[in-house]
Specification:
The protein contains 5 helices and 2 strands. Helix 1 packs antiparallel against helix 2, helix 2 (68-83) runs parallel beside helix 4 and helix 3 packs antiparallel against helix 4. The chain has a two-stranded antiparallel sheet with strand order 1-2. The chain is mainly alpha-helical. It has one domain (23-171).
């Protein structure tokens, strides 16, 4: 607990120099994100759902529990996005294949599902059981595709000696 207001200090982000270990590098961002992906990969993958909680006053609050498959896919897509400008020819080819398969899978789902839409909607929009099963299968396929992308990104990082200290900035 703070004893007086004099102890509180604000740091101007524009002029903050920090210590050497506080420096934010691209390599540091990538490594931290790999750790985050590792945490997401360490849980059971499940679909999102709504659940009700009873609050202290006896009222009920509905809360959405996120789809862990989507969280994992989003995390991998972010890593993919920040590494994209640094891709070599092999990773560019893998990236092209990833985008083609992703687009094909999305189109197949949209064509098979009942709502007449051009994008994949949230779970709540798929009312019949057939569409719910299709959506679940689509998300499982999407997760497997993203895990393959993560493997490709990991190979890309290894091939560039990323874990041994040679960073992209040093090569540019």
């Amino acid at each position: 607990m703070v004893e007086s207001e004099e102890e509180i200090q604000f740091i101007d982000a524009d002029s903050y120099q920090g210590r050497d270990q506080d420096k934010l590098t691209f390599r540091g961002i990538v490594l931290k994100y790999l750790i985050q992906i590792g945490k997401l990969a360490s849980v059971e993958y499940r679909g999102g759902f709504y659940t009700n909680y009873v609050l202290k006053d006896g009222s009920i609050k509905e809360v959405y529990v996120p789809d862990t498959r989507e969280e994992m896919c989003n995390a991998i897509e972010y890593l993919y996005t920040i590494l994209y400008p640094h891709f070599d020819d092999t990773m560019k080819a893998n990236s092209k294949k990833f985008k083609e398969i992703k687009k094909r899978n999305e189109k197949e789902f949209i064509d098979k599902s009942e709502p007449d839409e051009t994008i994949i909607l949230g779970e709540i929009f798929y009312k019949n059981e057939k569409d719910k099963i299709l959506l679940d299968e689509y998300k499982q396929t999407k997760l497997r595709l993203h895990i393959t992308l993560l493997r490709n990104l990991s190979c890309f990082l290894k091939n560039n000696n990323y874990m041994q200290g040679t960073t992209f900035e040093e090569k540019i």
